[in-house]
Amino acid sequence: MFPLIDQIPDLKTLSDARHPLHALLMEIALEEARAAYAEDEVPVGAVIVSWEKGVIARAHNQREQLQDPTAHAEMLAITQAASALQSWRLEGCALYVTLEPCPMCAGAIVQARLPLVVFGAFDSKAGACQSLYSIPQDPRLNHRAMVVGGVREAECQELLRDFFRQRRRSSRTEPEQKLS
Ligand code: ZN
Question: Which of 96, 103, 121, 148 is in the most buried spot, having the most CB atoms within 10 Å?
């Protein structure tokens, strides 16, 4: 699905947010986020890469379309990746997501045994990978992931800001939509 990576990168070098691989893979997550925007969904996109198999999942937030509170980009991507690998353990994989995962998605990251999570924008209202909680790094849980935040942060943030600005504007011009 995506040209990859001749060798499995060293996890230690990946702790650097400036690693070129991060910017590259975040671009795919950003494409997904833009697709969400076009579908009038809060623009968050996610990608899961297997260091052996390449990109095995890409998804965007579909909460409105599916009317499903669990249809966050990360949840959909984790399900896709597990199905691609025929395994619930996503060892040897990394999750890239444009917004810091919420508590639900951070819980799923732990459940999936994902070793690496890279996100774009910080979420001061719901972020559970650094901002409000640090669920994937909590030593009391049975699995820990390395978390790298702030990759292409400005672009990820701007997309969200733009979406909400747009939405406020259209709710002003169409007051009846306020009720929905
Ligand atoms: Zn979430």
Answer: 96
